[in-house]
Amino acid sequence: MPGGPRGPDGPRGSAGPSAGTGPGGPQAASLTHGAVGRLVVALGTATLLQWLGAFAIAPILPLYLEERDVSAGGVGVVMAAFFLGALLSQYPAGLATTTRGHRPVLVAGLVAYAVGCAGLIVSPGIMCDTAMRVLQGAGAGAFEVAVLTAIAATVPPDLTGRAVSAVYTGQIAGTAIGPLLGGLVGEQRMDLLFLGAGVAAAVASVPVLVLLRPDGPGHAPALSVASTGSDASAVGPTAVGPTAGGGAGVPGGRAGGAEAVAAVAAVAVHRDGSPGHAGRRAPAWASRRRTWSPLAVVGPGIEGLLLVAAVNGLAVGTYETCWSLLLTDRGISTELVGLSFTLFSLPYIVCAMPAGWLADHNDRRWLVVAATATTGVTVATYSFIGSFWLIVLVSCAEAIALAVSFPSAQSLLAQESGPGGAGRAQGLFTTTQTAATAGAALTSGALYAANAHLPFVLTAVAALAVAGSLPWLWRRVRGTVVPAAVPAGAVPAASTGPAGGALASHLITR
């Protein structure tokens, strides 16, 4: 996939809007390594707690509903209500992060999820159960979008992959530990599981409130850099513009005082020789289409990423309905079915941070292509394998592919949307994935009943088709980015942060 996006409109070297302003607000300023560490601690801890509580409930809830004499169709409605809530909330949540900042959306999502848990404790019947699951899904969907937007809008490009990997590791750890806790409690004490999940969501808001400063309009940048000189304004104005070599240049910018230091310290240089940007500047095509429409963020790179999101959703929806059926049809015990989820999670957790490093140091386009193709091959094989342990081995290969795909895709999404479109792009990405998940979950059961191979093979065909189309779709998309040296006089102010942030910063930048 050679080449890169065209440079900005206007004459070469012309000054553009300030690097630290414009759409996306103050949070568009890139973070220092230490500040990234604090951000990762806050978002990773909150994600782990929210997903742990959610997945303590999810595997046991159908059994609980069945014990209350809810029909199989009713169980399906209650379970699908969660996806409906997420589908309805994710794009509006993306818009809200643009206008209000990611911090209030994070907290609002966690509160909504906790309220839904409390409602399930006192629910009198299936109608209330369904409404509370919609509320849970809406809260979880808004929370996920805000987490990913916080990374996309604030983390420097050369650290995005590892920051995303850290957050996804929290998700996978929650999916590995939560079902074990739910199984220990059992469906007879679902009230304790509902209460525990609600408390976990409430506790998850603590690191968000403590470690993240208020962001959005009217607030200073959440985390920034400072000068060691006696007067930050001595740095003077600065401009970032296209190089004489041409290619994928970005608009220039002028900043004064401390803003200038933050801008200079966050500059990145792409491997094609073109300058990067302080914070994240919207691509040239985005500046011509600033509307609230979802189509406003669809650019050369976003189209391919939405296809990747759809494939991920199809795979998740297929597994949601057919994985347990496939294993039990082969005589696998319920205990081993549960173990298969944990065994899938382990290689992902082990490979997540190395995969994030790969995303930050290699061509992310080819990483996503390879991972999507691997997903297609593995999905196609499951229904043809009779051995449980061989199925687990293949699923481990898929887990490694997903560990590579997620940070690379999210890093590309942040690059292609820019700060002004980060919230909308994340909302559109997650909405696409959730819609595909819901559609696959609703249809794959009937496909499996017709032919056990059908849902897996159709998902595999879709994945391989997308993998084959991505090189053409991304032929003008920039694949790699590396940081430039930080100028003398600009040092991270984050070195005085919490110990947890320092540790996370060390892990994410080593």
Automatic annotation (TrEMBL):
Gene Ontology molecular function: transmembrane transporter activity
The Major facilitator superfamily (MFS) profile domain, residue ranges: 39-478
UniProt cross-references to Pfam families, sorted A to Z: MFS_1
Record bears the keyword Transport: yes
Subcellular location: Cell membrane
PROSITE patterns for the chain: MFS (PS50850)
Chief place where the protein resides: membrane
Stretches the record annotates as Disordered: 1-28
InterPro entries named among the record's database cross-references: MFS, MFS_dom, MFS_trans_sf, MFS_Transporters
Topology in membrane: Multi-pass membrane protein
Coiled-coil annotated residue ranges, if any: none
Transmembrane segments: 39-65, 72-93, 105-122, 134-155, 192-212, 295-316, 336-359, 366-382, 388-406, 456-474
GO CC annotation terms, alphabetical: plasma membrane
Top-rank taxon, per record: Bacteria
Keywords: Cell membrane, Membrane, Transmembrane, Transmembrane helix, Transport
Name of this protein: Multidrug ABC transporter
